[in-house]
UniProtKB/TrEMBL annotation:
Secretion signal, residue range per the UniProt entry: 1-28
Organism listed in the record: Hymenobacter endophyticus
Regions of compositional bias (Pro residues) in chain numbering: 52-63
Name assigned to this protein: Alpha/beta hydrolase fold domain-containing protein
Alphabetized UniProt keyword annotations: Hydrolase, Signal
Length: 383
């Protein structure tokens, strides 16, 4: 029987997206919803120079922002780089304009360039497949893999409105390297062009497609998990709920990274981190406005996970960041899952912000968080 890779390279591959695809990120924000084009990563085969054993220390240029008491220096450096890219407040823009704004991944790239940080080798092959009209997936397979491998279905963030497969390519590659599993990253359709519950239904359709088609890309349909970040964490949990309710095979595990888990924007972390970067309270209100048909949708169990029936959900790992409006969402969801009898591991990472998870080359807490997620996935999928 094939087993997971034992690679433990702390540098990881989470910078590959920045180094090899994000140079054109701002002109390609909507390409992943198309039915044909693929990321440049899909055809990359040349290995980059060998990477160092761990993240290169970086230091911020100025004092910590008023909202960021206790921010880690590496995290602050990325936030400073993001500010220097001149993006406009998302909540003041149309969805189309917002999709063209600089991203945290662009900021990571800028810091790496400024510090002459090399790129790690490419250790995953990719290919694109269509699930249904308008819904594409990118399949990541560890290079040199043989036999049948477990599969993880991944859902990216962006408030159901912005971002795409390239924006979160970093997180996926980091997890592929640390687990040795096949990852299927889902490009669900976005709002406001298509509102709730389109992204949720697309996400469940993609999960079902993986169950039916895993063997075609050397995946094991009996060993499937789900992972999501932010809005993607909300989608991953909703997929698990839909699978439970529709009597479809449940994921073996779900990893929810700073998930949107409620519609209440007056939680302790929303109040404490109302002006945080790169995600703040006004942005979350903007995302809800763009995705939900009416405020009543905010009470739907697929949006307000903390008020949903959580019994029978798969074992869960929840990761949050202390400088994030969504920290309380994840904390409350973990508590509700435990109360419902679901095996749940929860860890909050201090001094980092929303989107830290994919920044392993720069932010040590991202390396720790990816290792935690990968370990829980391996434990679940190797049984």
């Amino acid at each position: 029987m094939n087993t997971f890779s034992s690679s433990t390279c702390k540098w990881g591959l989470s910078v590959l997206a920045a180094g090899l695809t994000l140079a054109s990120c701002n002109t390609a924000q909507t390409t992943d919803s198309a039915t044909t084009s693929s990321s440049p990563m899909d055809s990359t085969t040349t290995a980059a120079p060998a990477a160092p054993a761990g993240p290169t220390p970086v230091r911020p240029a100025g004092p910590a922002p008023a909202w960021a008491t206790g921010i880690k220096p590496e995290m602050q450096t990325v936030i400073e780089a993001l500010a220097s890219l001149g993006g406009k407040p998302i909540e003041t823009l149309s969805a189309q304009e917002a999709r063209q704004q600089p991203t945290p991944a662009d900021a990571v790239m800028k810091v790496m360039q400024a510090n002459n940080m090399p790129m790690p080798p490419v250790t995953a092959d990719t290919m694109s497949r269509m699930v249904m009209p308008g819904v594409k997936v990118r399949i990541y397979t560890p290079k040199g893999a043989t036999g049948t491998l477990p599969v993880v279905v991944y859902y990216h963030g962006g408030g159901w409105v912005i971002a795409n497969l390239d924006t979160y390519d970093a997180s996926v590659r980091g997890l592929v390297e640390k687990t040795g599993a096949i990852f299927v990253s889902v490009a669900y359709r976005q709002a406001p062009e298509l509102k709730f519950p389109t992204a949720h239904n697309d996400s469940f359709a993609a999960y079902q497609w993986v169950l039916r088609n895993a063997a075609s890309f050397k995946g094991d349909p009996q060993k499937v998990a789900v992972v999501g970040e932010s809005a993607g964490g909300n989608l991953a949990a909703s997929v698990s709920m839909m699978a439970r309710d529709k009597k479809v095979t449940l994921p073996k595990h779900q990893v929810l990274v700073y998930p949107i888990a409620g519609y209440d924007m007056n939680t302790p972390s929303y109040q404490k981190n109302a002006q945080a970067k790169p995600l703040n309270k006004p942005m979350m209100a903007w995302f809800f406005d763009k995705y939900l048909r009416t405020p009543a949708d905010g009470k739907n169990p697929m949006i307000s996970l903390v008020n949903a029936n959580l019994k029978g959900m798969p074992p869960t790992t929840i990761i949050t960041a202390s400088l994030d409006p969504l920290m309380s969402d994840g904390e409350m969801l973990a508590s509700k899952l435990k109360a419902a009898g679901v095996a749940t591991k929860y860890q909050n990472f201090e001094g980092v912000t929303h989107e830290f998870f994919g920044m392993a080359p720069l932010v040590p807490q991202a390396t720790e968080a990816q290792s935690l997620a990968a370990g829980e996935l391996k434990n679940a999928l190797m049984k």
